[in-house]
Amino acid sequence: MDEKLAKGHYDLMVLDVMMPGEDGLSICKRLSAEKRLPIIMLTALGQDQDRIVGLEIGADDYLPKPFNPRELLARIKAVLRRAPEEMSEAGALSGRILRFGGLALDTDAHVITDRDGNRVQLTTADFRLLTVLLARPRTVLSREQLLDLTAGRAAGPLDRTIDNQISRLRRKIETDALRPTLITTVRSHGYSLNADVEVIA
Amino acid sequence: MDEKLAKGHYDLMVLDVMMPGEDGLSICKRLSAEKRLPIIMLTALGQDQDRIVGLEIGADDYLPKPFNPRELLARIKAVLRRAPEEMSEAGALSGRILRFGGLALDTDAHVITDRDGNRVQLTTADFRLLTVLLARPRTVLSREQLLDLTAGRAAGPLDRTIDNQISRLRRKIETDALRPTLITTVRSHGYSLNADVEVIA
DNA sequence: GGGTGCCTGATACAAAGCGCTACAATCGCG
DNA sequence: CGCGATTGTAGCGCTTTGTATCAGGCACCC
CATH code for B93-200? Predict the structure, then answer.
């Protein structure tokens, strides 16, 4: 599945939960975090709790078995109706250069260039954090989410990792690091990138 | 309902089907044709057929009664998650400059600029409160509403949080904080923003 | 017109959140 | 195996924010 997803383009995924190997919920969590692929969960687990968990994890809809094929079809259409066309590729920042807030990020060289032509080298951590933010502009992301998306791990109770990395990233890309405008803090929620992102080439 | 819809901004509608007067399905059909307002149908009609019809008519989701409140909440969140940004209130105001009462609010930098060019930095709480007010100019909002909209929580019996935040916000944006003109107090009801709001760029 | 009670504005304070620095652990690279 | 760069952890201190409290103002009543 991962191979196919990486290669081709898909509009929507219908996902079972109980499967050998990786769990459907796990897949859903993984995908909804990194991609913007609409997901409909379709499973024998029909309890309220199962549905709630499925939806909270990032599924767009949840249909318990046994189901009416026509209902599945109707729900697929309903989900697709809401999904904007660009959404399928909005998260995939496959372009080489990304423009945002007066800066340009070279996704190959991991280099930021500002309007004056100054170049700053990003470390791998900088780059991953920035990429995650760029994939969801103008969206508040919690430290938990950011840590999961950048490092793939859960946050400890006193985890200040993301704060630190944000601080380091700001020093590299903000014009005035004391009053950041690109990456703003949303107190007790997380951080958000305040700029429109444009993919070039 | 139509009056309210025409006047204010709404992120999502939860709609019953069997109501006196106009039918829920009819409303749904009407709205999904003209507006792009996400709709969740919530009704006692739980047959496959009913669900399919509801979804095909334009509903984004369909939840039969009796329902688990947490599931409704999860489905609301799921629908909002995939709703395009411009439809939500935060999205409608993001990345813009808002003019009101001689001031300009930069919604990216969270900075207020007055006619003389003086700049004031808003805190997150300031900004959220102001944003909520700007979204509903010349409307009286109760403390309860404001607290719900800004912090998403309910007010305790002796909750003076909003009073305090209004006070702090006034100090930053009112020319004469002792006699406020922009944010006026409506005794025993709440507060209201007294200015027309103009969205720029 | 003056008292009375409720409502609001402002201040003070405590707690929580966050930015930043310093340092240790880890990684990458030869 | 060693060195430098990078990254996670700890902790200090400032800012922000919720709560308590007091004082002033408005409405209402007589």
Answer: 1.10.10.10
Asked if the A122-196 domain carries CATH number 3.40.50.2300, the reply is no
A2-90 and A122-196 share one fold = no
Tell me the chain A residues in contact with residue B109 when contact means C-beta distances shorter than 8 Å: 179, 181, 184, 194
A84: tokens are 């904007």
Residue type, B147: L
Q: pLDDT for B66-111, tens place per residue?
A: 899 999 999 998 898 877 666 666 666 777 899 999 999 999 999 9
Q: Which nucleotide has the shortest C1'-to-CA distance from A191? A: C18
The first and second tokens of residue B112, run together, are 């207020």
The stretches in chain B having pLDDT less than 50 are none
Which residues of chain B have a Cβ shorter than 8 Å from any chain A Cβ?
38, 48, 51-52, 55-56, 58-61, 68, 70-71, 74-75, 77-79, 81-85, 90-91, 94-95, 108-110, 121, 123-125
Q: Which residue type, as a one-letter code, is found at position A107?
A: T
pLDDT band at residue A46 under the 50/70/90 scheme: confident
Q: Which of B162, B15, B31 is nearest to B87 (CA)?
A: B31
Class of domain B2-87: alpha beta
Nearest nt to the CA of B123 via C1' is: D16
CA distance A196 to A72: 35
